[in-house]
Specification:
There is one protein chain. The protein is α+β, with helices and mostly antiparallel strands. Helix content is 42%, strand content 23%. The protein contains four helices and five strands, in the order αββαβαββα. The chain has a five-stranded mixed sheet with strand order 1-5-4-2-3, with helices on one face. The longest helix is centred in the first third of the chain and has 23 residues. The protein is elongated and about 65 Å long. It starts with a helix and ends with a helix. The mean pLDDT is 88.
């Protein structure tokens, strides 16, 4: 009976951890730092850190490409090409999207697949 209770407790604990992790995906957080070596937009830049084998990265690229316009650029960078950004911004998952202001200063960070409404809200806040 104790074994069954332990297993039920372990499953409940893992479920709660999974729900917390899922809830944190796609949320914007305040971030800081300056990025150099990428083409900046006139108003803002959506810098997507991706990998070649990342399925959510393709969906994120579509959303960011749709949001981008004449004033906001979308730049996708493979983390294998810029390990300096990975270590500097402690990137633990792909995609990770950094929202930069027109001067290249990171103002926001979104881990995981992005949602259009969150990106638009963060762009409004940054600009």
């Amino acid at each position: 009976m104790q074994v069954v209770a332990a297993l039920v407790g372990l499953v409940a604990f893992a479920t709660v951890l999974g729900m917390l992790w899922r809830a944190s995906q796609g949320r914007a957080r305040i971030a800081s730092g300056r990025i150099e070596g990428v083409a900046l937009g006139n108003r803002a830049t959506l810098l997507q850190l991706s990998t070649e084998v990342c399925a959510p990265c393709r969906a994120t690229a579509r959303v960011l490409h749709d949001v981008a316009d004449a004033e906001v650029s979308h730049v996708e960078v493979d983390i294998a090409d810029r390990p300096d950004l990975v270590s500097r911004f402690n990137v633990l998952q792909t995609p990770t999207t950094l929202i930069l202001d027109r001067d290249g200063v990171v103002r926001s960070r979104i881990g995981g697949a992005v949602r259009r409404e969150i990106v638009l809200r963060e762009l409004e806040r940054v600009a």
